[in-house]
Amino acid sequence: MRIGFDSKRAFNNHTGLGNYSRFIIEALKPPNPRWGSLGDIEYLLYTTKSPKPQDLTWLNSSNQRYAIKTPTSGVRGALWRSWLINNDLKKDNVDIFHGLSNEIPFGIRKSRVKSVVTIHDLIFVRYPELYPAIDRFFYQQKFRYACENADAVVAVSQQTKEDIMEFYKIPAERIRVIYQDCQSSFHQKVDNQSIPTIKIKYSLNKPYIICVSSFSERKNQKRLVEAFQQLGLKDYELVLVGGKSKYAEEIAQNSPQNTRVLYGVPSADLPALYQGASLCVYPSFFEGFGIPIVEALHSGIPVVAATGSCLEEAGGEGALYANPLDVNDLSDKMRQVLTNGSLRNDLVLKGKEHIKQFSAENIAGQLIQLYREL
């Protein structure tokens, strides 16, 4: 069986969709006997240009089941990825093509290659005011086409499945909910020296609450700062980790001294930052899944997250949930976790149990089953 992947983001994006693409490709390493007899499985990773050596470090190059494929014609970029790639899929005798980031090539049905698309969220449809009109236009064309024309749709959460059904009228039986896990670097306990070292590096001198997220109004960090201030905890710091944005600058300029905004934190530092925290808070009012919650649960720390989308799916019983628009509720849930040791321990234990369903082996098994059905 030859399975092709749209791997552009796996080699070029270092967050979000790139992390998902890398997770799926790595999860589908040599077949597990429990997957049944599939014959030889080969994975073809299609990308618009040859990856640089530093973009290949995540891939096990000694595994001969992977082959990197770039355009065979002189045409590259979006035109090849959206249209002309079909010629390469036929030439390479691909059985199934999986679009890992919300799109599949236009006209793929004519190539007689079966197709799967992963849809991560339809936030741009639910909250159009958060996106530029030109972005919404192109997203709508690609996402709707993919949902209507793929042989199967993978939704990363039940919430996303319901949105696909509501906004695009896709039948439930064509959509499979298959979750994802975070990067494996979050799975292991860091060594004894890493946490003190990371605290020194970022000048963290007190116990701290952490929130790891891009900075935007939807992510709701301003209310988190308000909720933290309301707690009046002078012996704690609130640490917000993300990339620079206008919204982030507003927070940094208007927050008290015990709120820290950290930009450009390397991914290698995140496991220790999580594991050194007393609590993770993720107050976003709408998400497609919520990977930072899974990262925190793997890190063995309790979580407070928001109601209203799919974060309960990501956190299960390993988190408390607050109304993201209610500062009092958010503050109260944080206070409960910080002042109740028994509750903290219970959340950590339940979180460890909950995230077992997100294991790479489990996710890979579900995808292989889907591919077999196609």
Note down, in words, how this protein is organized:
- The structure is a single chain.
- By secondary structure, the protein is an alpha/beta fold.
- It folds into two domains: 2-180 and 359-373, Glycogen Phosphorylase B (Rossmann fold, 3-Layer(aba) Sandwich), CATH 3.40.50.2000; 184-357, 3-Layer(aba) Sandwich (Rossmann fold), CATH 3.40.50.2000.
- The protein is 41% helix and 16% strand.
- The chain contains 15 helices and 13 strands.
- It has helices at 8-12, 16-27, 77-91, 123-126, 133-149, 158-168, 194-201, 221-231, 246-254, 270-275, 291-298, 311-315, 327-339, 341-354, 360-373; strands spanning 2-6, 42-46, 66-69, 96-99, 114-119, 152-155, 175-177, 208-212, 237-242, 259-263, 279-282, 303-306, 319-322.
- The chain has a seven-stranded parallel beta sheet with strand order 3-2-1-4-5-6-7. A six-stranded parallel beta sheet has the order 10-9-8-11-12-13, sandwiched between helices.
- Helix 2 (16-27) crosses helix 15 and helix 8 (221-231) packs across helix 13.
- The longest helix is centred in the middle third of the chain and has 17 residues, at 133-149.
- The model has no long low-confidence stretch (mean pLDDT 94).
